[in-house]
């Protein structure tokens, strides 16, 4: 096991995604700078059920033990632009998804975060028109 044993990190990002569109159009429309622009690899782009391109904004992966805290950090970034985000997503027929990735290094029972979103966080995600997605990555011996 590496020196990372015994901790949990959480990455939260808001994805505005769709098929065959220019994510740079989103930057001007919502007046926010993305953390990154994502483009799917060829094998993903071939699947009609998956987005091909995304505009992504988030906070850095960091040691946390609450997914709510990570999601709220991203909501704080985008909240002033929520009406612009909703309008842009609707006009372009795109998807808005809050993605939360949990990375556990070591014992999964000792290092697991609280997998719970508060009612106010759920309400804000709903107001933003965002779905929620979570992945779990466990690195243990």
A few lines on this structure:
With 141 residues, this protein is an alpha+beta fold. It is 31% helix and 31% strand.
User: What structural class results from the helix and strand content?
Assistant: alpha+beta
**Secondary-structure element string:** EHEHEEHHEHE
| Number of domain units | 1
Q: What would you call the shape? A: globular
Question: Secondary-structure map with pairings?
Answer:
Layout: E1 7-18, H1 24-30, E2 36-39, H2 42-45, E3 53-58, E4 62-63, H3 67-78, H4 82-92, E5 95-105, H5 119-128, E6 131-139
Parallel strand pairs: 5-6
Antiparallel strand pairs: 1-3, 1-4, 1-5, 2-3
Describe this structure in words.
There is one protein chain. Strands 1, 2, 3, 4, 5 and 6 form a six-stranded mixed sheet that branches. This protein has one domain (7-139). The protein contains five helices and six strands. The radius of gyration is 16 Å and the shape is globular. With 141 residues, it is an alpha+beta fold.
What would the keywords be for this entry?
alpha+beta, 5 helices, 6 strands
